[in-house]
Fold:
Amino acid sequence: MSLQYDLIALDVDGTLLRDDHVLTEVIKESVQEAAGKGAQIVLCTGRGPSGAIPILKELGLNGTVITHNGAATINADDQTIVHQFDMVPEHLLCYVAYCRDNGIHFDLNTAFEMMVESMTPDAEVMYGHYQARPTVQDFRLGLPIGLVKFTIFGSKEKMDAVQAEWAEWPKVLHFIRSGDFFIDVHHSEASKGRALQQLAEIRGIDRSRILAIGNYYNDITMLEFAGMGIAMGNSPDEVKRAADAVTYSNSEDGVAKALREYAWC
Structure:
């Protein structure tokens, strides 16, 4: 059997990993098999590099990771930036003020650094799950430059309410639901699909030769750009509708089943 695709783009949380953040041996073996037959494996995740690169290493691979939902593309080998979408710090001030006024936890991210204004016990546990180690800083004198992502964290009900309210705001920046408990804010052009397109152009790979697998709203642009976009069985219906096919859930080794069904010819 030979591979039908030159590049395989994989989301991490809810896709490669089970809900308990475990990468199973079945998934490792299937991804390593694809890589061994010549596919370029690219992780496309909402995580920053500090949370994405260890997963790539756990897979026994190196190469490129698309991080922060496409806002920063990183070479994992030497941790250099291929491309990033910087936000204008002043455009974030209204989001920061909203979170302060409503007691919502938030973090600010450059390509490699995560910063918080304060830390709660719930946030500390959450960051531990994603292998993130934010530093506590005082933003009252101004926001840092080079910011690529602003993330808020809270209950699903709270995030639903914030999402509805922010939908009425001017569209200077773009926000996306990256999980039930998270909303990410980016540069208006940043997305997994756009970053995947940039990388494909750099490497001279036609989109028809790209397979992508994901499970959430922030994966839709990636699934739509790829020649074959596969949604996980645990995806919301809107994500499934955006895909070319649907596989099993992340608790059923869906990535392995998708690769074995669609990647070979």
